[in-house]
Amino acid sequence: MYRLPPLRRIKAFRSTPSGIERNAMYDFTFEDLVGDEKVFFAEYFDKKPLLRKNAMPGDVRDILSVRKLDELLHMESIRPPYIKVNHNGSGVPEKGYTRSVVVQGVNITDTVVPEKIYELFRAGATVTWCSLNQIVPELRDFTRVISDKMAVRTDVVGFMTPTKKRGYLPHHDPVDLFIVQLEGTKRWKLWDLPAQREGDNASYTDEELGEPAIEVLLEPGDVLYLPYNTPHAAAAEDQVSLHLSIMMRPRMWKDLLRETFEQAASGPEFNQYPHIGALRDAGTEALFRQKIAALAARMDALDSGAELDRLAELGRTMPGSSHGTTFQTIAETDRITPSVLLRRTAAVVEFGANDGGRTQMTVNGHKIAVPTPVAETLAGLEADVPAGDIFPGVDPERATKAAQGLTRLGVLEVAPH
After folding, report:
1. Residue 26 has what pLDDT?
2. Any keyword Transit peptide (predicted)?
């Protein structure tokens, strides 16, 4: 079960349109979490836990640290449900650690009080940071990597547990988990998956579960994978423990079929409004049967591979992992010079008819009129072209200015180095 892959470091650099290279945090990959992908999906995914010792590259405190959570707690903007406190297996009421504050004339009724959180932590409470990927931009790297591979919604939750304390009673979750230990150590007890997996939450007593099937100690850099509904319990050892639970929300067959059904039933033939009450027409039942048959025919005619690809893409674009650099791109557009290579973006551009030498273009909701030769050049642009040469016959400086404007609109982008 336990595999020890070689430790590897990945130094990441990110390029910008101006050509400036910036040091970045370590870039994490799906392989850092699972090791060999083929082995993971064949032997572990949705079947049994996987432990990977020393799996994450670099200093994992760069991902998130106890010190970073101190800073986050004092931001004066943290509110439930982004933070929760659990003491002796029970949740602490939010009123016990929040207060009202006035921000720009608006009364915020549930801002977290750092001193009260610290008091609870000193008393042995676990502090849970929910959906950290919505608060800490770097943690969206995890959600993007996993959502891209798994086509599911992904969220990151942080658990900080005092020394020698157990944060929660034994339980199972309705989500697959990647546990990443960041600071301290934590001992995990795992029990066998239940015979019936309903995809729900459930808590247990120690007596109900008996002896654990597996017991492991997680140290910084270790990764543990748990299929959904795996009963587990964890306790900090001789130091404060901080770990991330990266939660993958399963899309069951019933969820996928529901999305496929909604797509198949979106045709105009299913938009009529029937009366189905006690006074319905005699033919309504027969018409209902016809609609069922028509829907079944549409479902049967689906290209299953193409439909699974569509469903996968929907999963990759669920909330929790979006990213972008539009502000940065717009800010750096002014530094584009005639020699910078540009190319067409993936944005859909609609070209109108030639009207007196000018053509209307529509892109990202913006409508602009450009000289028809410019529109024709953009419509046929396939290769990377220097900004100064992008419009033949136009002075390079003027061409660059025009290219800058089209880059701001999202029609063009700087070609990667």
Report:
1. 55
2. no
